[in-house]
Design brief:
globular
């Protein structure tokens, strides 16, 4: 499936005559990374899924904030297996709880810049916490590879990681069992795959390269998200990303 998905993305990134390079770049100010933990097996999740889908139309998308929807698998046992869910997504949410960033593991659950965020329940998106000024993250996509440079504003860091996620959009599922039985559920910002690589540092400039993440489900539209974190800590330091151009 890696070859199928990466071949699809390669075709998207190809112009009629040559390969097109796509570059994403953050500002010095921290781009807010919003993580939704959700499940098609949870009857409380569709409103949160619809709310995060509406963020496609917000002006600050990709520059001020980046949403990602991680589907967890711990509700699969109640009658419906979420095709987007993975144990890795569930483990990521549990790790936030271990790091005391979440009081408990639940869906729908939001994490913003590494901290539990309950503003969604009041639909107060514009009251997000202010970010810091960690530095500039630049990501270049060429063929099936992502090359990243992080120019830190805060001195030397130890053991920084680059995380790259492939997001899928305009996805729909007809649910035939479980709490959402009989409903068609639309999805956007769905994490289809994540890969990581260690940065190599020269002074305050960090660089690395990795292959685009593996995904087992194709989507009508894609985006790429990259974020910097410390090894052993999930909280993002800086993030960038954007749409993969349609052919």
């Amino acid at each position: 499936m890696r070859l199928l998905i990466l071949s699809t993305i390669s075709l998207i990134l190809m112009s009629p005559s040559n390969t097109m390079s796509v570059t994403f770049k953050s500002s010095v100010e921290q781009t807010g990374l919003m993580e939704l933990y959700t499940s098609e097996g949870c009857s409380s999740c569709p409103p949160a899924d619809r709310w995060i889908s509406a963020l496609k139309d917000e002006d600050g998308l990709w520059n001020e904030f980046i949403p990602m929807s991680f589907h967890v698998d711990y509700w699969d046992y109640i009658g419906w297996k979420d095709r987007f869910a993975s144990p890795q997504n569930s483990d990521r949410q549990r790790q936030y709880a271990k790091e005391k960033s979440l009081k408990t593991v639940y869906t729908p659950g939001f994490v913003y810049n590494g901290q539990e965020w309950r503003g969604w329940f009041a639909r107060r998106f514009m009251q997000l916490p202010a970010g810091q000024e960690p530095g500039v993250l630049e990501l270049e996509i060429l063929d099936n590879f992502a090359t990243a440079r992080f120019m830190s504003q805060n001195g030397n860091h130890i053991n920084l990681l680059l995380n790259v996620a492939l997001l899928g959009f305009d996805l729909k599922t007809q649910v035939n069992a479980g709490e959402n039985r009989g409903r068609e559920l639309p999805h956007d910002f769905v994490v289809l795959g994540v890969d990581t690589a260690a940065f190599k540092a020269t002074n305050n400039i960090y660089q690395t390269k990795l292959q685009l993440p593996e995904a087992v489900i194709s989507a009508p539209r894609y985006a790429i998200v990259a974020w910097v974190s410390k090894r052993g800590k999930q909280a993002p330091i800086q993030a960038t990303g954007g749409w993969i151009p349609k052919p």
